[in-house]
Structure formats: C-alpha cells, structure tokens
Amino acid sequence: MLQQLTSPGARSGSCLHPSSASLALPTRRSTAVQACRQAHDGEAPPPLPPPAAQQPPLLQRLRAAALAGALSATLALAPIAPASLDAWAQPAALSEDTPVLDLARVVPSARLEGLQQQLRDLESETGWRVRMLTRYGNDGPTDEEIRAGWKTDERTVVILVDPSSPNIMNFKFGREVRGVLRPQFFTELQGRFGNMFAVREQGESAAVMNMVDTLTGCLSRGGCTVVPGLSADHYYFTLAVSVAGGVIAGAASKLEPSGFVQRRWVWVALFAPLWGSLFVNFGLGPVVTRTPDLLPLVGNIVAFCIAAAAVGYSPKISKAVGLTTDEDAA
Q1: Residue ranges under compositional bias (Polar residues) (predicted)?
Q2: Which CA distances in Å does 141 have to 23, 69, 133, 153, 154?
Q3: What percent of the chain lies above the pLDDT cut of 70?
Q4: Final residue before a domain boundary, out of 220, 254, 269
Q5: Is there a domain that residue 49 lies in?
Q6: Tens of pLDDT, residues 314-324
Q7: Which of 52, 54, 249, 291 is the most buried if burial means most Cβ atoms within 10 Å?
Q8: Spatial contact of 306 and 273, defined as CB atoms under 8 Å apart
Q9: Is 102 exposed, middle or buried (0-12, 13-18, 19+ CB in 10 A)?
C-alpha cells in the first residue's frame, strides 16, 4: 500500500502532482507543471521569470523627478548657450588694422565698424593715431601688449575705458600730441564725458562716442586749447559768476568819494580786478572759447548789467544786501 502511494512520485522524479503543485504555488501552477514535464522528458527547464521589482521609496522618486527636470531644462536651454558665448567672444590680440578693441561691449555694435573706419581715416589724412581699448579693471592686454600690438609712437593717443571705474576714461598720449592738445585738454575731456554724472545722464555708449568725436575733431583741425562745446551745467556756472561780478561792480559804485578818490567811478575801477576777473575770465571766457553761439554770451552780459544796476541804483536792494552808506542810513 505504501509502495502504491509513493510510486507516482518515483516515476516522475521530483515533480509533484498537479493538485499538490496548485496547493504549494497557486499563482505559478501552469509553469511548474510544464517544467516538471520537461524535466521528466530529459529537457532542461526554462528559467522562471524574476519576481516583480519592488517600488522605490518616496525619496528616490523625488530625486529621480528632480534629475529629470534638470535634464529637461538643460536640453531646452542648450540651443541658446552657444549663441550667447559667441556674442560675447572678442579677439584678444591687438593689431594695427583694428583701432578699437571693445572687450567691455561699450561701443554699440551698429557703430563699431564705422568707428574703426573713422580712426583709420584720421590716421591716413592727418597722421594722428587714436586707439581705444575698453575693458573691466585690468582684464585684457597689458601696457606692454598694447605698445607692442598697436606700435604706439609719439603721435598716438590711447583711450582706456573702464566702466567699473568712477571715471570711466583715461588717456595716454605721446610727446608730439602735447604740442596740439595740452594735458589740461585731456583733463577737461575726462571730467566732462567720463564722470559718473555725465555717464548716468547720457549712458556709457553715448559718453564714449561723444568723447571720441570731440577728440578726433580737435586733431583734425590741428589742435584745441579747450574742449569745444558748452554743457548746461557749465553755462549756469558762468551765468552765476557773471551775476556775482555785477554785484561787486554795483557795490563799488555805491561807495562815497574820499581821500584821493574824487569820483565814484574810481572805486569801480579800483575794484575792477575783482569783478573783472569774475565777469571776463570766468563769465565770458569759457563761453567765447567753447561755442560760437551768441546767445550764452549775450545772456551773461545782460545778467552782469542787471546785477550791477540793481545793486548800484536801487536803495532797497542795496539795503537788503547790506551795502548802504552812512549818508543813505542818515
């Protein structure tokens, strides 16, 4: 009886009856039975499929999502990056055929080639050489590389523009340049166009281009004593100085004759070095030397005359400014 119970298992080797296999592995019944039959026939059983992979934890899912998002953003921005790098790329070498090396991107791109040609024409027509380098701080070529690359000589003006500096402009020039443009000219040029107020009002590009036009214009006509052009702030200063000279002249005309002074106009003549210096040197001189326009000149003359007449012939104004004489007070 025991032999009859165990004989089916002996004939089939290690294979179980379908009913017992279904009890042991209910989810893989057909696969196990097929494997047992192939083993009984002498064939190698096929490998069983691996169990289902376990789900990753929440932290791994979030990390994978973040990496996927970063990769997507990188791929989306990839076409823009090369164009941006190419736009900012600048040649680092200096050559005589390139008068302007704009590393700081100050010169407008639409005017860069025109500025290059303008400086080339200036050199071919007059012999004066103007070179300009824009950079941030000490980045870019050194002084030795500038001299070697541009082959600077006594007729060369090198303009250094640094947008990170309080005054963005600096100049280096040869000895022959001093004969037509004095060092005071470059000081005024730097103060007018390179100070932070002018740059803030006009913008870096406009300030630099106006400076280059002024410099090349003076070199083209053989030199300048002062920087041409009269700014609004400069004119208001000359107007105020003219009024101050008129006040002093009018006050001198109020003084009573005494001692060797027998006429009031003598007092005006004696104080002429004071009011004349203010009115002529600082009121009219800057206007005449910087602009051919007659309107600022006439305005300063009229302001001087009105101030002198108001103080000299108006008792109320004279009393208000404390210029009354003892006779008027009596």
Answers
A1: 17-29
A2: 86, 42, 9, 18, 20
A3: 70
A4: 220
A5: no
A6: 766 656 656 55
A7: 249
A8: no
A9: buried
